[in-house]
């Protein structure tokens, strides 16, 4: 959805933030990448993979591109119902991943549910007003601001007690035993690690599991990384990691140049409820990795959150707008 050329009334502007900027900061535009040269072949392969997952009894909603085994991540359950949100602590980061959709130049500043906030004390009210049940503290790398992260976690836990799930998204670069213990003691529910940012090195995950039983790997699926992803899955099984969450790789205005340089194509145009579009090959690669996990890491809970899933989430979030108690 394009931003209007004239300033909007405060109420309308807030609605745009809540439904679009929440997911991808409102940065993407349609047709950023050329379309895949072989959509028919890709669609045929996808149908084969989905049929095999269904045959094996995988849980989920195939029509929405949503599949899982084992237990869904606790933070994903409210999110699927449109009751999840994001708290971006900073867009500064220790990495410069080609798939990142954060704006550049990177900047300071906190946003909650797509809304810029000037005071940390405003955060609980923003989440409570919208009936949020699960929030992810992210960046950039949020642990570049460890004191702020700890303060906010404590504030949220004191305000919501056990009614709010709080996850922290990190690449793991800043993990130490001390910071992990501090996060746990502050009331953090769990960790989400993007190992795609460090070449799929499981060391941060192994360290995280010493303090958090719920430390999940959450990554975009890069089609050319199949063998590296399989190696990561085997490593996760060896250290008894609980969960892998896969996202379909997507293109935005901020990562399009990098994706184009790598020769990637668009899988299709964005849905009506999203502000980004999927990258060709990522969907099939995720489904292939899903089957690999079932064969080689059967105790690993796996969740695939496709762009179809994300559009469903956006629809549910829109349905809940203005009804915090629903």
Description:
Mean pLDDT is 87; it is low at 1-28. Helix content is 38%, strand content 17%. It has helices spanning 10-24, 39-55, 76-80, 123-129, 146-160, 177-186, 203-208, 226-238, 256-261, 282-296, 307-320, and strands at residues 59-61, 66-68, 84-88, 110-112, 115-117, 134-138, 165-170, 190-193, 215-221, 243-248, 250-251, 277-278, 301-305. The strands form 2 sheets. Strands 1-2-13-10-9-8-7-6-3-4-5 form an 11-stranded mixed β-sheet. It has 2 domains: 32-73 and 217-305, no CATH class; 74-213, Aldolase class I (TIM Barrel). The radius of gyration is 19 Å and the shape is globular. α5 (146-160) runs parallel beside α6 (177-186) and α8 packs parallel to α10. It is α/β, with parallel strands linked by helices and 326 residues long.
Top CATH class of the largest domain: Alpha Beta
Total beta-strand segments: 13
The strand line-up of the biggest sheet is 1-2-13-10-9-8-7-6-3-4-5
What proportion of the residues form beta strands (DSSP E)? 15-25%
Round the Cα radius of gyration to an integer and report it.
Answer: 19 Å
Q: Regions with pLDDT < 50 over 5+ consecutive residues?
A: 1-28
CATH-assigned homologous superfamily of the largest domain:
Aldolase class I
Number of helices: 11
- Strand count, sense and closure of the main sheet? 11 strands, mixed
Number of domains: 2
CATH topology descriptor of the largest domain: TIM Barrel
Question: What is the annotated CATH architecture of the largest domain?
Answer: Alpha-Beta Barrel
Shape call: globular
Order of helices and strands: HHEEHEEEHEHEHEHEHEEHEHEH
Average of per-residue pLDDT values: 87
N-to-C terminal Cα separation, in Å? Answer: 27 Å
Structural class: alpha/beta
Helix content: 25-40%
């Amino acid at each position: 959805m394009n931003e209007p050329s004239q300033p909007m009334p405060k109420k309308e502007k807030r609605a745009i933030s809540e439904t679009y900027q929440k997911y991808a900061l409102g940065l993407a535009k349609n047709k950023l990448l050329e379309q895949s040269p072989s959509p028919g072949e890709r669609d045929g392969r996808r149908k084969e993979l989905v049929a095999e997952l269904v045959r094996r009894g995988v849980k989920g909603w195939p029509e929405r591109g949503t599949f899982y085994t084992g237990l869904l991540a606790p933070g994903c359950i409210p999110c699927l119902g449109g009751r999840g949100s994001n708290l971006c602590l900073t867009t500064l980061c220790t990495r410069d991943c080609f798939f990142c959709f954060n704006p550049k130049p990177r900047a300071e500043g906190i946003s909650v549910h797509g809304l810029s906030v000037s005071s940390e004390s405003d955060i609980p009210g923003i989440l409570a007003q919208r009936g949020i049940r699960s929030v992810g503290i992210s960046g950039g790398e949020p642990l570049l601001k460890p004191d702020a992260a700890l303060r906010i976690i404590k504030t949220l836990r004191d305000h919501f007690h056990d009614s709010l799930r709080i996850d922290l998204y990190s690449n793991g670069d800043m993990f130490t035993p001390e910071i992990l213990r501090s996060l746990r003691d502050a009331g953090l529910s769990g960790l989400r690690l993007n190992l795609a940012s460090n070449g799929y090195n499981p060391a941060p995950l192994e360290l995280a599991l010493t303090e958090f039983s719920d430390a999940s790997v959450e990554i975009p699926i890069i089609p050319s990384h199949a063998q590296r992803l399989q190696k990561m899955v085997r490593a996760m099984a060896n250290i008894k990691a609980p969960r892998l969450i896969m996202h379909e790789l997507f293109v935005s205005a901020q990562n399009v140049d990098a994706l184009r340089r790598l020769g990637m194509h668009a899988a299709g145009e964005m849905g009506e409820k999203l502000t980004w579009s999927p990258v060709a090959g990522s969907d099939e690669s995720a489904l292939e990795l899903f089957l690999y996990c079932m064969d080689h890491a059967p105790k690993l809970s796996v969740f695939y959150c496709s762009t179809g899933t994300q559009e469903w989430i956006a629809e549910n979030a829109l349905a809940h707008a203005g009804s915090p108690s629903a």
